[in-house]
Design goal:
InterPro entries: AKR, Aldo/ket_reductase_CS, NAD(P)_OxRdtase_dom_sf, NADP_OxRdtase_dom. By secondary structure, this protein is an alpha/beta fold. The termini are far apart.
């Protein structure tokens, strides 16, 4: 809260739960909020007018709207730097050739973020599921991506329109990512420029990247572009990508975690012990670890029972010792189970 920083806030609400939660921040919360300062660039509404005529800065934080750990729920979200809220857990459809059926099941289980890609060849199936679900479009957060072979200014513009046509449920995509950095600096920049133009045209709400290392994101900054709202990387206890995660947190870039359950390779004594301790499945332990770190995990499955169990991670909490034990499993790049192309030039 602002009064922790010697300011006097005036929050307003008529909901008892929100009234209580508005005064519930710990030291870590304060540090997280302090790091979001954007100076005058962060002001909104009439404050912009005041800032123009007054010799002082007005500070408005773009905040993480997730609750404290003990109150995380399936409805918890992260507010991106673009101002849009992204759900704290998503449903991945990589290698899913029955994506309409499984995405509909995911909606029943409570997921509202769906992660697809042009290369997955199932955008049309995801779009069909969104339409058949009956869920209001504004309540669904759809992610798609363009892979390196389609990178370039004109091809990206064309691909964006094709993705919108394939999804077929609205005139915008919530989050569009550059899928990988393989195309080289010049084409990466051309692709990013095209996506930012798509954002300016209202076809995309937020632009991000995937599998980008620090140097790839710094290229965008050096070119004068806004930083990505999201970086989607392989992320789990065995492959924690600490330098990239640290950089993203310092620059207010949300982190999505793919392969969060290590592609099913979870038969490890530490994970099994914690699963027994909490009477949970190993996958639930790994997914809970992810959300408690502030990542957005993207588990995938076509099995009904697994789709439901993977999102059932909000009825328990890992304590500090549990988290530290899982953190200690990091093997760096050797722990990766996917392509993890973060080191390409």
């Amino acid at each position: 809260m602002m009064f922790n920083s010697s300011s006097v806030p005036l929050p307003k609400c008529v909901t008892p739960f929100r009234i209580r939660s508005n005064i519930d921040l710990d030291t870590d919360d304060m540090h997280a909020l302090d790091s979001l300062d954007r100076g005058k660039e962060g002001v909104i509404g009439w404050l912009q007018i005041l800032a123009k005529y007054c010799q002082k800065s007005f500070y408005i934080a773009i905040v993480v709207t997730m609750s404290p750990i003990s109150r995380l729920s399936i409805n918890s979200t992260i507010r991106l730097t673009t101002g849009y809220d992204m759900p704290m857990i998503g449903f991945g459809v990589y290698q899913n050739y029955n994506a309409t059926v499984s995405t509909l099941e995911a909606f029943k289980a409570g997921y509202r973020l769906i992660d697809t890609a042009q290369a997955y060849r199932n955008e049309k199936h995801v779009g069909q599921a969104v339409r058949e679900s009956g869920i209001d479009r504004s309540k669904v957060f759809v992610v798609t991506k363009c892979v390196s072979k389609t990178h370039g200014y004109e091809t990206t513009k064309k691909g964006l329109d094709e993705s919108l046509s394939s999804l077929e449920f609205a005139d915008y995509i919530d989050l569009f990512l550059i899928h990988d950095p393989f195309s080289g600096k010049e084409r990466r920049l051309e692709t990013y420029k095209a996506l930012l133009e798509g954002k300016a045209e209202g076809k995309i709400r937020s632009v991000g990247v995937s599998n980008f290392n620090i140097k790839h994101i710094e290229e965008l900054r050096e070119a004068g572009y806004e930083l990505p709202a999201v970086n989607q990387i392989e992320l789990h206890p065995f492959c924690q990508q600490k330098p990239i995660v640290k950089y993203c947190k310092e620059n207010n870039i949300a982190v999505q975690a793919y392969c969060p359950i290590v592609r099913g390779k979870m038969d490890h004594p530490v994970i099994n012990e914690l699963a027994t301790k909490h009477s949970r499945e190993p996958a639930q332990i790994l997914l809970r670890w992810s959300v408690q770190h502030g990542y957005v995990p993207l588990p995938k499955s076509e099995k009904t029972e697994r789709i439901h169990s993977n999102v059932d991670i909000f009825g328990f909490e890992l304590d500090d010792k549990d988290m530290q034990t899982l953190d200690a499993l990091d093997r760096g790049k050797k722990g990766a189970v996917s392509w993890n192309p973060v080191d390409v030039d």
